[in-house]
Every structure is written in C-alpha cells, then in structure tokens.
Amino acid sequence: MAHLRIALAQTNPVVGDLAANSAKLLDWTRQAAAGGAHLVLFTEMFLTGYPVEDLVLRSSFVDASIAALEQAAARLAEEGLGELPVLVGFMDRADLAPRVGRPKGAPLDGAALLHRGRIVTRTAKHHLQNYGVFDEYRYFVRGDRLPVFRLHGVDVAVAVCEDLWQEGGPVAVVGQAGAGLLVAPNASPYERGKDDVRLELLARRAREAGCALAYVNQVGGQDELVFDGDSIVVGADGELVARAGQFREELLLVDLDLPVADREPGRTAYDAGDGTTITVDRFVLSSEPVTIDSPVAPSVAPRLDDMAEVYAALVLGVRDYVAKNGFTSVILALSGGIDSALTATIASDAIGPDRVHVVMMPSRYSSKHSVADAEELVRRQGVNARLVPIDGVVTGFEKEIELTGPAAENLQARVRGMVLMGLSNEHGHLVLTTGNKSELATGYSTLYGDSAGGFAPIKDVPKTMVWELSRWRNAHTDGWFRMDVARPIPENSITKEPSAELSPDQYDTDSLPPYEVLDRLLDDYVEKDLGSAELIAAGHDPDLVARVIRLVDLAEYKRRQHPPGPKITPRNFGRDRRLPVTNRWRETPG
Ligand SMILES: Nc1ncnc2c1ncn2[C@@H]1O[C@H](COP(=O)(O)OP(=O)(O)OC[C@H]2O[C@@H]([n+]3cccc(C(=O)O)c3)[C@H](O)[C@@H]2O)[C@@H](O)[C@H]1O
Ligand SMILES: Nc1ncnc2c1ncn2[C@@H]1O[C@H](COP(=O)(O)OP(=O)(O)OP(=O)(O)O)[C@@H](O)[C@H]1O
Ligand SMILES: NC(=O)CC[C@H](N)C(=O)O
C-alpha cells in the first residue's frame, strides 16, 4: 500500500473575479501545505467561478482564464508552494474548429494540474450536460483526454463533475485503464434530496472505476443557484471515508491507503463505452512513497436534516447575493403575514438584523393584528423598522385617476413597491421581494407591486413549506445564523389564515383552493410536468386541474419579470423551466 494525504478545498469562488479566486487558490494551498497535504483539489472552473453562462462566448474571458491559470502556476512556485501538486478547474480552449455561432477556439470546461511552476497536464469535462439548469452544449466542446499522474507511487485519474453522472466515458475508462484514486472537481448545485443521490452515485462510480474517489464540490450562492459543498471521499468498495460540511467552506484533509501503481506510463486510446474514444495519458510526477507520521482522523461532518438544509440554502443564497453584488443592507415590506416574516428572518440570519430594514405600510384594509404581528417581529429580531401609512398616497392617486375593482386593489401593492424602490434608491438597500412559489405559479401577485425587487428569497418555496420552514426556524437556534434569537417569528403570523388584505375581509382561499391541495397539484404539474389527463388520474379534482393549469399558464409573463431567487426544489421557475410567454398551447381547452 502507498499513502497520500489529500486536501479537498471546498471553497466559494466569485464568478468573473479571477484575481480574488487566484488569491484564494494561493491561500488555501498554503493551508493545505501547512496541513501536510500531498495533493490539493479545487472545484470545477474554480478560477472563473461556475456557471459563467455567456461569459464563455467572450474570447477575452477565455483568454483571461488561461492567463490566470499560468500566473497561478508561477505564483505558487514563487511562494514556495511549487512542490505541492494542485488540481484546479478553469476555462480552457481546444485546438478545434468552433461550432457554428460560437467564438474561435472552442471553449472547454477544463481542469489542470499545477506543479513546480508549470501546468503539467490539462483535461476537460467529457459529458456536457444540457438539462435542468445546465446549458453546457451551448458553450463547450467535449474533452477526450484522461490524465493519470503517478504521485508518490499512486496513479491518480481525473474526471470533471458531470463525467460522474453519466454511464460510459471517463469513469468507464478508469475502470479499464486502472488507477489508485479518481479525483473529481465539481460545481453541483443544491436541490432537496440531492446529497443522498450524490453519495449513492459516488459509491457506485468508485466500484465501477475500481478505486477510491475524491469528490470536491463548490460552495456558495450564484444568482439562482446555491452550491452546498458536501464534498465526499469514498473507498474503492464504495464505503464513505470522509465528508465535509454542508453550505460552508472547509478544507478537508483525508489520509488514504491506496494501491501502488504497477502500469507502464504512456498513451493509450480506450473505447469509452459511449460511442467515443478517450486517450489515457499516464505519466510519472513522483514515484517515491511517503509515510504519514501523524494521521488525521477521518472526518464525517454531521448531516443537516431536510428543513435545515433548505433553510441553510436560502440563507446562503441571500448572503452571497447581497455580498457578491456589493450591497450591505436589504429592505422589505413587512405585513405581519408569514411570507414577509419568513423573508425578514432569512435576511436577518443571512446578514444580521442590524442590516435588515423593514417597512410597515398599512392601508385602509390592513387588520389591527397585521400591524401588531409586524411590530412583534421587529421587537423580537431587532431589525430597523419604519411605518409608512399608504392611505394618503393611495387617496391622492385615486383623486387623479379613477380605478375600480382589482385595478384599485393593485394600487396599494404598487404604492408599497414605489416606497421600497424610493428607499432603495435613497439608501442603497437591496429590495427583497416576498412572493412564494405557489403565488408565482398562479400569478397571485401584483406586477410592479409586491413583486417589485432585486432578489426573491422564497420564490422557490411552496406556501406549505413556508409554514414548515417558519416552524422549523422557531424551533432552532443553530450557531451559523447571524441572528442569535430564539423564536424570531411571531406565532400568530404562522397560524393565521393567509390574506392579501387588498380589499375588506379578503382571504387567499376566496380565490385559491387550500394550499395543501394547491401545492400537491402544482408539484405534479410544474415539477413533474404531468398533463391534465395524468393529473386527473392521479386523483386531482378535474375542475381544479383545469382552473389551476390555466392560472399557471397565463402567469408566465409575470414569472419572466420576477427577480431571481435561490433554487431549492428539483425544478425552479427560472433556469429549470423555460416556457414561451406568447403561447397558445393549453393542456385543457378554454
Ligand atoms: N401576456 C402578457 N404579457 C405582458 N403583460 C401582460 C400580459 N398579460 C397581462 N399583462 C399585464 O399584466 C397586468 C395584470 O397583472 P397585474 O397588474 O399584476 O394584476 P392582476 O394579475 O390582474 O391582479 C393581481 C392579482 O394578484 C393578487 N395579489 C396581489 C398582491 C398580493 C397578493 C398576495 O396575496 O400576495 C395577491 C390579487 O388579489 C389579484 O388577483 C395587465 O393589466 C397587463 O398590463
Ligand atoms: N400592510 C403592509 N405593510 C407592509 N407590507 C405589506 C403590507 N401588506 C402587504 N405587504 C407586502 O406585500 C406582500 C404581499 O402580501 P399580502 O399581504 O398581499 O399577502 P401574502 O402573500 O400572504 O404575504 P404575507 O404573508 O407576507 O402577508 C407582503 O409579503 C409584504 O411584503
Ligand atoms: N457542473 C456539473 O457538471 C454538474 C452536473 C451534475 N449532474 C450535478 O448537478 O451535479
């Protein structure tokens, strides 16, 4: 057996900030060296951040990525870290003709090994995923080389993220070619339940590859995606060896006993089992074995439960959107209802209540308890609050333009939106909008009113889960919240019947079915894409199916104008679900 101590750098890069990401590479490599690591692994496209979307189409950005890689190799050596091999993701360019409509030089989702001031080898993602939130085929060409480098007598193979998720390709080739360790840089966004899927997948791939597998994942928020980290090492038998924490940065050091390499260096082409050929390039970096005098105990971070995971994703999504976009404070409208209460709580936990500003804006239809519930939240959390009664503005507007029915009702929501945007302009706060997924699905919000804002923390949270999360948060005071308050949400906001309070005695259930019924139907229609016949066969009421499908379909234009917010379900409104706005296809006639 040979030994290796590997360091998994589960870090939070910033998209487009090559200088900051390079500085982080240096800093974390220094820490890994201090920890006695023999190899450091960074995440997929770490130098550029992930996903960079149409920045890939800018030749200048690809050039900058390659230049940053070259500079990083030199800088590591200058800083005395050259002896420690570093595997890092970056954007590369292939020696290929580009596909139609794309820039010259065909971009690659690449990874490189840096050692002694040089780029020792490069590889690139082979499987280009083009489903869900991903568009890799739009951007990249397929990698067709698989490096296997010998490090202290162990053969180490490299595969990039999606290459683990597909049958055939790099994993199948490692199985044929042989290696002692497979390492994989990843940028795998969070959604509910994905951590269990990942662990099972990695166990299976390790067995297929016939070697241990080290999986390092990005952490942090990037627009509507949240990366959860949760880096994992499994043995060749698929058994879990080590696991990093979720939703936080961590340098995970793992000691591994691995088989001594016995294959000859050289280049060999393999049938990848997916209709392609992959060339394995086996070479020696170092053959001398190492001993590990004081082994590190294998660390398996405790798992968050399901609601804790979702809550952590929302908090991190808000924290990183705020910080990475240069804001220091947020503002939102606080009604005393549960949506704005939960949004305020997430914001307080993300950036601290001293940086959260709430505005209470009662109208003539606001109930007494709404104002009292909002004030109670302010008292519990210590957020900055101001009261702006909107009746005078609404009445002034009505004097000039006569509006009736829904047009008059929406005016209140729009005046509130205007107040928020005014205060945002004046003080530089980011406006958080409070709509949940059930409302977004059915179009139950006022355009340029309560949907106005820059970021939408709970837009992917169905209303029934809004209550669940609120109860969960009131029962927990974990150390990673930036607000150290027990039971931050007034119980009355959780238990009262939901109402838009845009007209007298108005309740959501006047126009919508109970949320338990609605959310089940929305899940089947939006997330599972069932057609109307399948929905009825699944037990949903036929009249309700027709009504809800119509509401969902007609609200596409509102969703298209809604701000981004963190994805937590397998299918969010945004990158996961792209429908035409101008669209006459209907599941049900009418
Ligand atoms: N295809 C299309 N493409 C682009 N724009 C389109 C459009 N169809 C309509 N429009 C525009 O959209 C307007 C209608 O949308 P909008 O102005 O929003 O108004 P609308 O959807 O008619 O009314 C808002 C609804 O949301 C409910 N609401 C409001 C506020 C808060 C809550 C809550 O409980 O949280 C619920 C309220 O009770 C009402 O049912 C039209 O007047 C038109 O200007
Ligand atoms: N009186 C109010 N003061 C301040 N903001 C309000 C007020 N009424 C509504 N809002 C804002 O408009 C959003 C839409 O709220 P609305 O009361 O219409 O129903 P909701 O969707 O159930 O939300 P919530 O549960 O937060 O009340 C609220 O989340 C809040 O941001
Ligand atoms: N960046 C990637 O290649 C990620 C793809 C992969 N299926 C995932 O979510 O985890």
Automatic annotation (TrEMBL):
Deamido-NAD(+) binds at residues 410, 439, 558. It is an enzyme of class 6 (ligase). Residues 560-590 are annotated as: Disordered. L-glutamine binds at residues 131, 188, 194. GO terms for molecular function: NAD+ synthase (glutamine-hydrolyzing) activity. Its EC number is 6.3.5.1. ATP binds at residues 333-340, 434. Pfam families: CN_hydrolase, NAD_synthase. The keyword ATP-binding applies. Signal peptide: none annotated. Residues 573-590 have a biased composition (Basic and acidic residues). The active site is at 44 (proton acceptor), 44 (proton acceptor), 125 (for glutaminase activity), 161 (nucleophile). Pathway: Cofactor biosynthesis; NAD(+) biosynthesis; NAD(+) from deamido-NAD(+) (L-Gln route): step 1/1. It catalyses: deamido-NAD(+) + L-glutamine + ATP + H2O = L-glutamate + AMP + diphosphate + NAD(+) + H(+). Keywords: ATP-binding, Ligase, NAD, Nucleotide-binding. Residues 4-258 form the CN hydrolase domain. PANTHER family: GLUTAMINE-DEPENDENT NAD(+) SYNTHETASE, NH 3 /GLUTAMINE-DEPENDENT NAD + SYNTHETASE. Belongs to the NAD synthetase family. Catalyzes the ATP-dependent amidation of deamido-NAD to form NAD. Uses L-glutamine as a nitrogen source. HAMAP family: NadE_glutamine_dep. This is Glutamine-dependent NAD(+) synthetase. The gene is nadE.
